[in-house]
Every structure is written in structure tokens, then in C-alpha cells.
Amino acid sequence: MNRAPGAIRTPRRLLLVVLATALISAVVTASVIALTSGDDTPPRPPLSVAVVGDQYAAGFQNRVVWPTLLAQRTGWSVSNFALPGAGFVADGRGGHAFTYQVDRAQAAHPDVILIVGGINDTGLADPAPIEIGAIDAVHKVILGGKRALVIGPTWFETPVPESVTRVSDALRKAAQSSGVPFLDALDPPWLTRAQMLPDLSGPTDEGQSAIADKIAEWVRSEVAR
To answer: For 24-41, what is each residue's pLDDT tens digit?
Structure first.
């Protein structure tokens, strides 16, 4: 039987059209998946931290201090406003108590302000002024819309002197009454005598490193909540 010209080729053309349509559909689908599966969310900026503290954070004879090491080991942006001799009651060498440092820290617009105290208040027999000063500093941070984290003073031997534990207890109470986290650095003490400068005025570089590791671990756990 004779077939009309093109009668055999028609199914073949139909098959080619079907295959071409399927190929185009597959390409479009793959493109859509690629576009929708891509994460267009901009990366989160590093955590911004401001440090309020005394000579342990400011350093005396150190090549590097723990706030700098904290930034290096975490990738966070860390601003150090600590001043030697400062405390919640102690005014430091320039009359710059912790509340003054908080004012400067607020101006840096950090995510978190670490308030790390303070061996310079150990000369006070009455802990009440220390607690009041700590509450004032913490409330300044809160009213400024920032997150406050409080760390007690650290030491280098056991038993810890009562004058140091008195400061730590006052800071714990201030943090609890203000509803902010508190980290005890005395149980056990973070440092050893070998990690202190010969005159015991502050940590050695090894001591600074130990403090940086302790604080990094704690802050990570707090900001993850």
C-alpha cells in the first residue's frame, strides 16, 4: 500500500517535539531549584562586644590582653574600655569608675557589654556600695538598649581572700536583682600564682590567655540562648 509523503516522518517529528519540550522543562525546573535553594540571606555580622573592667583587662606589662585575644579567637568585634584602678566604687587613676566606662561603651553601639570586676573594690568592708554601683552600671546598659553580662573578679590561689569573695557576692546579687547573667570566676579561681606577674598586680600573658578562653566559652553559651 502506498503511503502519502511524510506519513512515516510525522511520528518522528512528534517524538522530537516531545523530547525537546521535556528537555526545556527539565532545564527550567533545574534553574528554579537552583534559584530557590540558594541562600540570599546576607551573612550575620560578627558579635560586637564592649569590655568594662580594671587592670586585668587593661593590662600593665602584657604584650596582649584578654579582650584582644577574645576577638582573635572568636572573630567577634571587641572594644576594650577597661582602665587600671577602676571599680564599681573605686574611681581609678583618673576618676573613671565603671559607670564612666559604660557610658563610653554605649557610644560604641555593641551587642553586648561585659562588665568584669573588680579587685579594686576589695578594700571596702561593706559590700553594699559595691552592689549599688554594680546595679547602677548594669541598669545603664539595660536602659541604653544593650545586653549586659556580668563577670565576677578572678583570683590566683585557694582559699580566696574574703575581701575578694565579698566583691564577687555583691556582683552576683546585683546581677540577679537586675535579671542579667553572672559568671563566677572564683569557684575555682581561673588563675594560678604562676599566671600572675611577679608583683601580683595582674595576669601574665599566659593568664590573659586563660581568661580569654573562659570568657569566650561563657559568652558563646549566653548569646546562643
So the answer is: 454 444 444 444 445 566
Q: Is the peptide bond before 188 cis (omega within 30 degrees of 0)?
A: yes
Model confidence pLDDT, tens digit, residues 31-90: 444 444 455 666 678 999 999 999 999 998 899 999 999 999 999 999 999 999 999 998
Say if residue 5's pLDDT is above 80. no
Residue 77 maps to which CATH number? 3.40.50.1110
Beta bridge partners of 203: 196
CA 140 – CA 102 distance, rounded (Å): 7
Return the percentage of the chain with pLDDT > 70, whole number. Answer: 79
The per-residue DSSP string of 139-154 comes to HHHHHTT-EEEEE---
Burial of 12 (0-12, 13-18, 19+ CB in 10 A): exposed
Put residue 124 in one of left, alpha, beta given phi > 0 → left and psi -120 to 50 → alpha.
beta
Helix segments in 52-197, DSSP class H: 55-58, 66-74, 98-107, 128-143, 162-178
Phi and psi angles of residue 170, each rounded to the nearest 5 degrees, phi first: -65, -40
Q: What are phi and psi of 145, to 5 degrees?
A: 80, 15
From CA 114, how far away is CA 51, in angstroms rounded?
A: 5
Q: Is the pTM of this model over 0.90?
A: no
Q: Are residues 28 and 108 in the same domain?
A: no
The total of structural domains in the chain comes to 2
**Residue 219 structural domain:** 48-223
User: What is residue 121's DSSP assignment?
Assistant: G
